[in-house]
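User: Can you help me understand a structure? I only have the sequence.
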Amino acid sequence: MRMMLNKTALIEALTIVQVKGKYLSSHTLKNASLGECVKIFTKKDNDKFNEGIYFMNASHEMAVLHYLPYVPDDEIEAVFEIEKLLSYISKMEASIILDIDEVCKISSGSKSATIPLAISHPQEIAINIWFNNLVDC
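Assistant: Let's start by predicting it. Here is the structure, written out as tokens:
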């Protein structure tokens, strides 16, 4: 599937689901993030979903979802390492094309890169439980 996205909106979505900050650990604060991966999936308009791209991340304690309006050609699911994806798209121009198949080809103007997809999100079960409960509401 091919998606054309705004660089700023994509960086903002990835930053939101990364949830970097200070967390309490053993009575001390540590710098951490929610997780290193993001699950991205598209949905076509129906009675349960708004048409668009959903960015999800989770740990064993919490989950976060960010929605980006978009008209997808097909419904897809892909899992990326957030830092790796951010490092490539930050060097690209304002309009970014993601070609997602067995790998993800990122292109913008004359620049392009190919990055692997993860097989599944480390907290896939938490994401599925949380998202299914959200859909049932």
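Now, to help you interpret it: The chain has a mean pLDDT of 88. DSSP finds three helices and ten strands in the chain. Let me know which part you'd like to focus on.
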